[in-house]
Amino acid sequence: MSEQTIVSFLDMAGSGLAVLFAYIAVKEMSAALRECRESQLAILERLLGMLSETSIREREVDGH
C-alpha cells in the first residue's frame, strides 16, 4: 500500500466517524426533545385537571 492510499483510507475513515458521531448526536437530541415534549404534555394535563377541578368546585359553591 502506498502512503497516498493509507492517507486516503484514513481520510475516509475519519469522515465516516464524523458522520457516525453526528448521527448519534442527532439521535440523542431527538430523544431529549421527545422527553421534553412528554414532560410538557404531562404538565399541561395536570394543569387542565386542576382547572377542571377548580371549575367543578366553583360551580358547587355557586350552587349550579
C-alpha-based Rg, rounded: 27 Å
Number of helices: 1
Work out the strand percent: under 5%
How would you sum up the major sheet? none
Q: What is the element string, with H for helices and E for strands?
A: H
Shape: rod-shaped
Strand tally is 0
Word description of this protein:
The protein is an all-alpha fold. It has one helix at residues 3-62. The longest helix is centred in the middle third of the chain and has 60 residues, at 3-62.
Please write out the topology.
Blueprint: H1 3-62
Short structural description:
With 64 residues, this protein is mainly α. Helices cover 94% and strands 0% of the residues.
Brief descriptors of the model:
single chain; 94% helix; 64 residues; mainly alpha; 0% strand
